[in-house]
Structure formats: structure tokens, C-alpha cells
């Protein structure tokens, strides 16, 4: 629970600060942030699926094969 709260503060406080200050960033004007965010979410989703597949299927089989070897 404490780790979750720390992670929340690590992400939320800078975001709230950025909304409060409203900095003008000239280098970011030509970038489609929505597309970048959507791509990031898609990559994170695929990575999570692959990681869970590894943990649920490949790792137990590999560990079982190691236990069977004398």
C-alpha cells in the first residue's frame, strides 16, 4: 500500500504542479501528444501481456524442467 501511495505522489504531484504553473513550451507545439500517448499506452499494453504470458506459461515450464533434471 505504501509503495502505491509513493508511486501516486511521484506521478501526481508533478502533473498537478505542471497544471498549476502552465509553462509555455515552444518545442512541444508541433508534436501530437495524443498520438504519442496512445502509442505509449499500446506499447505498455503489449509489454504487460507478454510479461504475464512469460510468468504464467513459460517460466513454470522452465522451472519444472529444471527440477526434473538430476
Main sheet specs: none
Outline the low-pLDDT stretches: none
**Strand element count:** 0
Q: What global shape is seen?
A: elongated
Helix content: over 70%
| Total discrete domains | 1
The number of helical elements comes to 2
**Percentage of residues in strands:** under 5%
Task: Summarize it.
The chain contains 2 helices and no strands.
What distinguishing features does this structure have?
70 residues, mainly alpha
What does this structure look like?
By secondary structure, the chain is mainly α. The chain has one domain. 80% of the residues lie in helices and 0% in strands. It has 2 helices and no strands. 0% of the residues are buried. The mean pLDDT is 86.
What's the structural blueprint in terms of helices and strands?
Layout: H1 2-21, H2 33-68
